[in-house]
């Protein structure tokens, strides 16, 4: 069981907030590695999660100028927050979304995106509250159910999380982003084989996008199949980005010191429980 716990901790390191949170947007959890679910918000006609570092910086400047002229412009503010998040400016992204949530206190999309920003900053309980306030029992939204599941997963409440994903799938059958989240839930639990099954199902669905494929690449790489992972990743990213992702993953899994550190942390955690 030790190897399972180590895999689970490795997954958490790589995927701390790599879930779809909000209305088809996702948290970012791996810094500049881009091995994350990313965001499907678009700036300049290109998906945010496939932008290079230079493109992200350029988009941040352009959107920042538009945002400064009119902070209350909801689409601009949300895109700006998404780009900031992917660019590693999590605190600034949260500040933008907090201000927007004050301006739109009952807007479900804004509240959901605000919850995403809170989760990306590790403020999981406030994030859960924001997403639950956005949900309405009489007219439930599958995106919000999936978002709630993602946050519950990060809180370690896997059973409750998977109930939310399955509720989301009842509302939106075969939705690839929800299947992807469900798969990533099993990654955090150390069950990468089950995770791969869900992610392959997700990738096969119409509408599956880059973030779903990148999650599949990650899960394949976690099983040591780096060539296959790079092939999957390169379908969406430039060859350089795909190689960088796999190199990052390979280094995490192959460095003996990293494994030893993960094992020490796992033992320390177990001793305190």
From TrEMBL:
Keywords: Repeat, Signal, TPR repeat. Residues 1-28 form the signal peptide. TPR repeats lie at residues 142-175. SMART domains: TPR. It holds the Pfam family TPR_19. Gene3D superfamilies: Tetratricopeptide repeat domain. This is Tetratricopeptide repeat protein. It comes from Aquamicrobium soli.
């Amino acid at each position: 069981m030790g190897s399972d716990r180590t895999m689970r901790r490795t997954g958490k390191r790589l995927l701390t907030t790599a879930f779809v949170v909000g209305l088809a947007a996702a948290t970012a959890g791996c810094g500049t590695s881009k091995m994350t679910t990313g965001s499907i918000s678009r700036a300049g006609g290109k998906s945010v999660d496939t932008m290079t570092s230079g493109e992200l910086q350029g988009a941040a400047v352009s959107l920042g100028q538009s945002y400064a002229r009119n902070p209350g412009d909801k689409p601009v503010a949300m895109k700006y927050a998404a780009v900031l998040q992917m660019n590693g400016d999590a605190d600034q992204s949260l500040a933008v979304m907090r201000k927007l949530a004050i301006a739109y206190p009952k807007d479900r999309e804004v509240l959901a995106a605000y919850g995403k920003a809170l989760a990306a900053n590790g403020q999981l309980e406030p994030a859960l509250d924001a997403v639950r306030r956005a949900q309405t029992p009489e007219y439930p939204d599958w995106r919000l159910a999936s978002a709630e599941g993602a946050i519950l997963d990060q809180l370690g409440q896997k059973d409750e999380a998977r109930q939310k994903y399955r509720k989301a799938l009842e509302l939106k059958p075969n939705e690839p982003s929800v299947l992807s989240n469900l798969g990533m839930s099993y990654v955090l639990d150390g069950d990468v084989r089950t995770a791969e099954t869900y992610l392959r199902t997700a990738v096969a669905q119409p509408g599956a996008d880059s973030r779903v494929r990148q999650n599949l690449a990650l899960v394949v790489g976690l099983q040591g199949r780096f060539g296959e992972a790079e092939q999957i990743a390169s379908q969406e990213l430039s060859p350089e980005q795909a190689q960088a992702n796999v190199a990052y993953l390979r280094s995490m899994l192959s460095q003996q010191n990293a494994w030893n550190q993960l094992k020490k942390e796992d033992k320390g955690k177990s001793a305190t429980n």
